[in-house]
Amino acid sequence: MGSTERSKLIGVIVEGTNTARFRIIKLPNFEELCSHELRITQITPRDGWVEQNPVEILEAVRLCAVEACIKLERLGYLVKDIAAIGITNQRETTVVWDKNTGEPLYNAIVWNDIRTNSTVDKVLARLPEQNHNHFRLISGLPISPYFSALKLNWLKENVHGVRKACREKRCYAGTIDTWLIWNLTGGPKGGAFVTDVTNASRTLLMNIETLHWDPLLIKTFSLHVDMLPEIRSSSEIYGHIRNDSVLDGIPISGILGNQQASLVGQRCFREGQAKNTYRKGCFMLYNTGTRCVHSTHGLVTTVAYKMGPRTPPVYALEGSVAVAGVAMKWLRDNLGLLKDIPTDSEQIAGSVFSTGDVYFVPAFTGLYAPYWRKDARGIICGLTSFTTKHHIIRAALEAVCFQTRDIIEAMKKDCGINLSKLHADGIMTDNKLLMQLQADLGGIPVLKTEVNDTAALGIAMAAAQAKGIDLYQMESDSRDYPHHVTHETFLPTTTDEERNARYTKWKMAVQRSLGWAISKKSDAMTDERYSLLASIPASLFLLSSFLMLVFSSSNQR
What predicted TM-score, i.e. pTM, was given to this entire model? Predict the structure, then answer.
């Protein structure tokens, strides 16, 4: 085809917790032409610590782009047909590097790392009534190990190289989007030092109303504004790629945190629409429009998107569940109760009609929304001599649904609106039993999208808009949306009385999970031995319970 007839393409960098991907999407129908992905190594130097090598992340992105472009040319397209690049990334994960050399000063601290529990305690000790919600009206967030400010504070206090670089004003800090864009657009030679409002809203450093770094928050966490990137909208041209790669000269024109990108990809543009992503964790976002709703029921206020420098921000309430797919991995790797997670979790759990009144609260690293209890730890209760691995696996699936209902209930209280349906995406949605359980235990229809990666679709839309395509026109014109609007719908099949009785017992189980990880009381009790001792009762309980279950399961066979 002639150059004037060529379709515009959008390149999408999807950097997640476990993988880096580069996808190439064709406009105007947002059809994926080709992609390439690589695994990212998880580094766990201690229990509860999760790190990644920032250089590995960057090189994986570069290699994925090269491989995807090779596939593209085999299809008869040219790399120059790519009009723009969008980036969607794992949020809260924090990187620090030397702005003069580009060298990381430490590994990236991943979003689910809990080493900053002690940092939280130190910050709370300086606040009135030690209130976790002290900064909610400013930031939209509670004080939690989850958010980037705590990770930066820990790095500055515990890593000599970071502390020295901060003192010498050569430390740059940011989330993964910032690290990638700075490097891809030139690095020390003029790289764009930017982030977008969605990622900045996850740091506990941005004022949720003004969309600027907040001086009080920066001071509270002993940081300096010069180490932080410029906050921009989610859809504009931030710079052009300049790193001697196949993509050189192409503009980067979209940034969205992965969950916000999923919200956009699900077309939840209207106030009152919500989506839930089922992966390693669960992340539900509820569009509140241009209203910045401050939750009083344990949710966080976040920026959903801002589609251009001169457009108003759209906000969302979010509830995050730390453990969803992780629980299935734990059942496989630690207990050997299943082998192939996608197949076995559905078949084994589906072979029994209920959990036998067993409840599993997978609070391995504490509970996130709406509880925000870092002292919680995982429990399984309701065991009898008849309990088998089938009941345990089904209880693990139900735990995902109950945690999601916790968030739905909190959203209802904050907004006064009953959710009419729940859009669902993520790898776990391939489990049809899970989707049916979610409909049954939540009491609302679940609409599972047939798009494999709604985050990639969402960031492609944001990047495309910066090149002149109107998202709101697309939202109202189905001709611009072909196959990806298709959903598989799961309707509730249980009564209100039945699901509410089950939910009441779930809340009882949650209460029993609290208080296992005892807060440190003095400087003399700050080493890891204390944390280990605090967790022994729960560990012994789980070990003895599962020994009984394994014997029970083997007897059944």
Answer: 0.83
